[in-house]
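Example record

The entry below shows one chain as it appears in the dataset: sequence first, then structure tokens.
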Amino acid sequence: MCDTISMQRNKKSKLAVLALVVAGAFAIGLYTGIDERIASAANTAVPTITVNLNPDAQPSGVDFTPLWRAWSLLDQNFVETHASGTIPTDQERVWGAIDGLTNSFGDPYTVFFPPQEATTFNQNIQGEFGGVGMELDVNKDGALVVVSPIKDSPADKAGVLSGDIVAAIDGKTTDGMSVDDAVSAIRGEKGTAVKLTLIRAGAKEPITVSIVRDTIEIPIIKNYMRSNGIYEIELYSFSANSADLFRDALRQFVQSGSNKLILDLRGNPGGYLDAAVDMASYFLPAGDVVVTEDYKGKQDNIVHRSLGYNVFAGKNLEMAVLVDQGSASAAEILSGALQQNGVAKLVGTRTFGKGSVQELMDLGDGAQLKITVARWLTPNGSSISDGGLKPDINATTTPDDISAGRDPQTAAAVSYLLSH
């Protein structure tokens, strides 16, 4: 799903939900952005907006005659066959019309949920279920793509890679399948297996893997001094407590005496927005732009600025941030803020390009619409959704590199830092 849900418009709380096929505390997704801190993602409900419209109001200049003519023609002429299933009720036809209207916008993150699907969606955000530990989204061609497998998850151990196209799930093609439907198909009872058919760049034939579902423990951070005197922080997600853990890691970096830092955000699918803003604030003076929510005139833009911790002011900090196509959402927000404010160089490959904000709105009778309402803009005004962030230093890690234990991207970051 890889999207951002606004929990309450008046409070501007932002919740990014990647279609995370895991289980446990992170439920359906990693949460990019809650301005008001929330103690536990596991206990986070998703309030929705109830839209009260005049039922007699119609868009001016729109002729609904063809819709009612089609309704009448179907009523008068349709004959059930073994291939058609049962005739839908009048209410089901209304839901179908809304679904078609929603799909006409061509946005994979704008989705209509009939009552039953809406209930399932909200339960999945809060509930526990078996998963394989990876995030899904759709690429520009509409194909299901793996954003990133979670480190040490069943998907990671099975060899799933960022950028893999999920062509089939348990032998069923994913052509035309929504991300939500794919996530539902991959989830299941812990201990059971799901078979994925993957198309991988450079592979001559599709790859089939069988993955046993499990409850996923998502790591958050790892930090250490490298033998070459460079300090490294690996950040795996932007969880509710990641900002505090990041602060502790930075304290250890300062105490180490090193002035060279690698921040590894590869495969990081995002998380709380306020965590990204908090982390950026350790490197930026107060008031510097971290990210902007652009509503394109529908309402005033919201600019998220540095809180001004700026603990490295006046110090000779040399910093590189590792990114790849698995770096998404809050990871892109932090990377863009550090890159475009001149704090760090980005090393690796282009990031995923997840930069839109969604709100979940009630339609009544249990149905809901999840609508893209804004986009994330980096400090220089670029949209993260427009192809992601471009690294300053290009470096690619291939499947052969991984098999051989090589890491050309880290090597490129080390080379850059040691030369400065």
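Notes for this example: Confidence is low (pLDDT under 50) at residues 1-20, 22-50. The CA atoms of residues 258 and 365 lie 59 Å apart.
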